[in-house]
Design brief:
Layout (H helix, E strand, L loop, with lengths): L1 H4 L1 H20 L7 E2 L10 E4 L3 E4 L7 E7 L6 H16 L6 E7 L7 H9 L6 E3 L3 H10 L4 E7 L5 E5 L3 E4 L5 E5 L5 H11 L2
Parallel strand pairs: 4-5, 5-6
Antiparallel strand pairs: 1-10, 2-3, 4-9, 7-8, 9-10
Length: about 200
């Protein structure tokens, strides 16, 4: 009879543990960026890439596409961001094959398709760097809410610098803008969100 007194306590404890486990696995994911619920697909664009080829955003339907606007002469922000993305993809393991990274140059005057290809390959062999005419780049950037302009500052080599929005955008498998990540996101945070999106 003594053991029976503890049975309700034991049952209650088991129920609490099960409920806690259930909450852990079904709780909503908290993204590390700004989540978008757009009714329209992300604007399509065409970029010139190395070897005289072109790519479109729509070419990668079925993958998560990370879009970043930057330039190869960028001394700090761009390499830092691409480095974070590189580490996040390593953390994804085999799932990284389901993510495509595209860097769009905001410096079409200096960034040729070949220079962009060489630059992004330093970070990951699957990254794509693309450009277009200044007018087309301005149009694409405007559609995605990206600001950029020559800053007036120069490097020690005399190269001009460009101020630009440094966000990273995730477009889901169906072509909709899903999350906009701020500059400064960590690789762990980005990997966490990508794992959830790819589930």
């Amino acid at each position: 009879m003594k053991n029976n007194r503890f049975l309700p306590v034991l049952v209650a404890l088991v129920v609490i543990i099960l409920l806690g486990a259930a909450f852990y696995f079904v709780r909503p994911h908290t993204f590390h960026g700004t989540v978008y619920q757009s009714a329209e697909e992300a604007p399509n664009f065409t970029l010139n890439v190395a070897n005289g080829k072109t790519v479109k955003l729509s070419d990668f339907r079925g993958k998560i596409v990370l879009v970043y606007f930057g330039y190869t002469f960028c001394p700090d922000v761009c390499p830092a961001t691409l480095g974070v993305v590189t580490q996040a993809l390593k953390d994804l393991g085999a799932k990284a094959d389901e993510v495509q990274v595209i860097m769009i140059s905001v410096d079409p005057g200096r960034d040729t398709p070949e220079k962009l290809a060489e630059y992004v390959k330093h970070f990951h062999p699957t990254f794509i760097g693309g450009t277009n005419t200044p007018e087309e780049i301005a149009s694409i950037a405007s559609l995605y809410g990206i600001f950029y302009e020559v800053s007036g500052q120069t490097t020690s080599n005399g190269d001009y610098l460009i101020d630009h929005t440094a966000t990273l955008m995730a477009i889901d498998r169906d072509g909709f803008l899903k999350v906009v990540f701020p500059f400064g996101i960590t690789s762990d945070e980005l990997a966490d969100d990508l794992k959830y999106t790819l589930r």
